[in-house]
Amino acid sequence: MEHNLKAVELQKRGLSNLKREDYESAIDDFTLALELKPTYPDINNALGVAHFFGGSKEMAVEYFKRACEINPEYLEARLHLAYTNIELGNMGEGISILDEIPQQDQSREEKWDSRKVFMSGLHARLGQLYEKRGQLLEAQQEYKKAMKLQPGFLDTMLKLARTYSKLELFEEAHREFDRILGSNPEYHEARIELGMLFMREGEYEEARRQWEKCLSCEYHSLRARFYIKKLLRGEFKENRERMEQLPDDNDIQQESGSS
């Protein structure tokens, strides 16, 4: 009984340190608590979280795994395990864990709200990893999964629209951009990307109009000015393959500073 009380006390102190982002102290507290009660799945999961943020993600995987072994129904620990594997680049393992997670129980809808948001974020993150690798069809599928869980997330909708654009699925891309800008006409990044979609279609004047709309609400937009300048130089028209090697913000700032 005394061990149980001491373990609970250490766990509470660890959670308090975790909230304060004092991860080293949290790891110490949870480790001591785990020595007293090694079969508590909540302590294993909490120690995994502390290691994820302040220690070793590899160690975090071990504690999340242990929490899942103790309680196979521990959904939060399974989500943490999937996300950590994805963060470490173990995409296959992360996807496998996600695929094993059961679908939402409609009778427990309220309890699932935060989990749906979390899982939507996981799929969006996975989509980004696929997109960076040039695996656009896989990225598209992950963004669709994210949107199914959270259909109102404009950032995810934009990622899906951009992927459609890169795949030259122009009708689908325009549909997504219409939804985004219909919801938020001042979404600056969406107008930038919509301009790039028009560029891919060879609609140069329409691309320019979109970037000029960006400048009308954000006069100092470096990206909009940069793209308009390249358009006026005729660089996009000369070589549309440049569309797939667009500069990042650092490159834009360097060129802007030298011009």
Structure explained in plain terms:
The chain is mainly alpha-helical. It contains 15 helices and no strands. The longest helix has 24 residues, at 109-132. The termini are far apart. It has a domain at 1-99: Tetratricopeptide repeat domain (Serine Threonine Protein Phosphatase 5, Tetratricopeptide repeat, Alpha Horseshoe), CATH 1.25.40.10.
Instruction: List low-confidence stretches.
Output: 104-112, 241-259
> For the residues shown, what is the average pLDDT?
81
Sketch the topology as an H/E string, one letter per element.
HHHHHHHHHHHHHHH
Fourth-tier CATH superfamily name of the domain at 1-99? Tetratricopeptide repeat domain
Most strands sheet? none
The first-level CATH class name of the domain at 1-99: Mainly Alpha
- Bin the helical content: over 70%
Give the overall shape. Answer: elongated
How many E strands?
Answer: 0
In short:
This protein has 259 residues and is mostly helical.
Task: Supply database-style keywords.
259 residues, mainly alpha, Serine Threonine Protein Phosphatase 5, Tetratricopeptide repeat, 15 helices, elongated
Please give the structural blueprint.
Elements: H1 2-19, H2 23-36, H3 41-54, H4 57-70, H5 75-87, H6 91-100, H7 109-132, H8 136-149, H9 154-166, H10 170-183, H11 188-200, H12 204-217, H13 222-233, H14 235-238, H15 249-258
